[in-house]
Design a protein that fits this description.
Oligomer: single chain
Number of helices: 11
Largest sheet: 5 strands, parallel
Strand content: 5-15%
Helix content: 40-55%
Order of helices and strands: EHHHHHHEHEHHEHEH
Shape: elongated
CATH topology of the largest domain: Rossmann fold
Number of domains: 2
């Protein structure tokens, strides 16, 4: 009598992980809205905004961050201004781009799990977790949670622990090539985001979507 042969195990469903700014959320809206609120040219505001962003994304407070921006601009922001600026900032980064929302819906309908890995401050992380669209995601991981930020290798290791996945099970999109290169070195199936159409083609090749 022949021994029955079991069918080979099906491959694990990958976790599709996304960066936030420039991928899920449109770039540039925060700078425009904040510069308008302060009535200064956007290019003037952008310099201190980005110069002090890393410590903020690593867990710094809004008071520290906006205070440094105020000093650079020759202004003093009181608590009311800081709350206003932080609200404008988080609102701009916590909204989904239409094409990204459509793609996420298509993936979610297949039952494919989704995650986020983004460099972001605590106030933005909280806003994203409150947003209705974040309910699509299995796990949300932010640099402020980990105390390290992309492209530090520890970010990807820490994200693996929170995702509960092996590196080879993660498909990742980020708009910064340096973050993608670091993710690939860690073992993630990482891709540079250039838009929803190109990402759709990638997801078909990855077996996440049908062609």
């Amino acid at each position: 009598m022949e021994r029955s042969q079991s069918s080979p195990p099906s491959p694990r469903t990958p976790l599709v992980v996304w960066d936030l700014g420039g991928v899920l959320a449109p770039s540039g809206q925060a700078l425009t809205a904040l510069a308008e609120a302060l009535d200064i040219p956007e290019e003037e505001f952008a310099v201190p905004y980005w110069a002090h962003r890393d410590p903020y994304d690593l867990g710094g407070t809004p008071t520290e961050y906006w205070g440094l921006i105020g000093e650079a601009l020759g202004r003093t922001f009181d608590a009311e201004w800081i709350e206003r600026l932080d609200r404008i900032d988080t609102a701009a980064w916590a909204v989904l781009a239409d094409d990204s929302a459509d793609l996420l819906d298509r993936i979610a309908r297949r039952g494919t799990p989704l995650g986020v890995l983004s460099n972001a401050p605590a106030s933005l992380a909280a806003a994203v977790r409150r947003a209705g669209w974040s309910g699509r995601f299995e796990t949300l991981v932010f640099s402020c949670d980990l105390g390290v930020m992309k492209p530090d290798p520890d970010v990807y290791r820490g994200a693996d622990e929170r995702f509960g996945r092996a590196p080879s099970d993660v498909v990742f999109f980020d708009d910064r090539p340096v973050n993608v290169e670091a993710a690939r070195a860690h073992g993630w199936r990482a891709h540079v985001w250039t838009g929803a159409e190109a990402a759709t083609d990638v997801l078909v090749r990855e077996g996440v979507l049908d062609g």
